[in-house]
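Case study 2.
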Amino acid sequence: MKIAVHAKMLSEAVLNGMGWYAFNLLKAIAVVDARNTYDLYSSAPLVHVIEAPNFTERITGRPRLWTNIALPFALAREPHDAVFVPHEKLPPLVKGRKVITVYDLHTLGEYFRSPISITAKLHFLKAITLTIKKADAVIAISEATRRSVVEITGVDPAKVHVTPLGYDRGVYYPRPEAEVEAVKSRHGIRKKYFINTSSLLWYRKNLPRLVRAYADSAARKDARLVITGMRGEDYDNVARAIAKAGLDDDVILTGYVPLEDMPRLLSGAVALVFPSLHEGFGLPIVEAFACGCPVITSNVSSMPEVAGDAGRLVDPHSESAIASAMDAVAEDAGAREAMIKKGLERAALFSWEKTARRTVEVFEGR
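Prediction:
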């Protein structure tokens, strides 16, 4: 098969969550699939390059309205057997088998009550009313996302395929104490710490509630709370929660953390505390497991599916439940060691190779 890939996100210097998904998935496909050929379309040269003999960059230029104008013209000149778009958009008038990836769907009411931008809400509305229905195959990154897609859009369940995410095993593994101490020093962490590894301080990460739970925990006296991630739409609420609780010296907002620092921070943490309100998958859970970091996460959405019995599940709306879980993990060394062991075993179930093989099957209609 000749497969076209919407790869514009790989031309960006700093990848977001969807960019990392596309990059890691395509790298793994390049290893497991030598049978099909892949044309990676972008408006600018790729910063994150896939090196394989059956992968070719197709740079079209004309970045303005690229998905709706430049890309369809390019695909019309050179038809493909399949077109893969690793998000919930499809170029118009595209021929061939159309495959998209859906990461996360709320109900329509939940989404429009959320404090995200009008542009994001309109994108969501288009995704559920048009794009998902027009696609020949939909890749969902979890069973929870698959259920949401079917329930919200009413599409045939047979066209929605679950391909759980993998993690980079060359990056996420337990790191020695010397590496942990060096990265702690760089980020101004001088005590034990809990960590939340959000990439963006977004409302569904539930961070103001996490801050208030930490303020009420007994573990606060011995451990800091470290929250990673760039400023997002919930940043002001997080900052207000920190100030109101008098936690300016106890909560560390690192901002963007380089990829090489993340496994070291996870390896040194008391636990990852990830009480999100909704996740399409929750990759930080697997990354923490792989680094030997215990996980406290939510009992809703995809998080129980990903954590299995290796994580401690809590009601994300209950500050007391979050605080109690933090105290339990911090105080019981034996339970913490058992969580670390189970987490490492759980992480071994996830790999980008598995994700890639299943994705190629979806491309091929199997």
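The chain has a mean pLDDT of 93.
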